[in-house]
Amino acid sequence: MDRRSEIRFSLVAKVRYRVCDRPSPAIAGVGQTISVSRSGMLLRVQHALEVGDRVAVTVDLVAPSKIGKAELTLLGEVIRVEPDCVALQFDEPEIKPSGH
Question: What CATH number did the domain enclosing 76 receive?
Fold first, then answer.
């Protein structure tokens, strides 16, 4: 039985990530989402990240051609590390559309 409080959705999307709180050299790369919930995501990453790292993640979203490119940028903390993957918990667990 899965004890997570949030429902996870399998979602494959390209992401760009950047570690915010480490000194030079900067750690940034391209990765891919594996699963996403309201409060976090599991990411496939290129670099060895550590539990506690603060990470900014920009997810490339598919958008209708009239809108053009759509992106979602989230800030969170690495809470678990697996081979080639990290689990990220968002700072703001709820994402609300603007104007609501």
Answer: 2.40.10.220
Q: Domain residues for 17?
A: 9-90
Q: How many CB atoms lie within 10 A of CB 82?
A: 10
Amino acid at 37: S
pTM above 0.85, yes or no: no
CA dist list (Å): 33 to 41, 42, 95: 7, 6, 17
> What pLDDT sits at residue 49?
92
Structure tokens at 64: 């209708």
pLDDT in tens, 55-70: 999 988 766 666 667 7
Residue 81 lies in a domain: yes
- Whether 98 is in a domain gets the answer no
Q: How many domains does the chain have?
A: 1
CA dihedral 89, 92, 93, 94 (to 10 degrees): -150
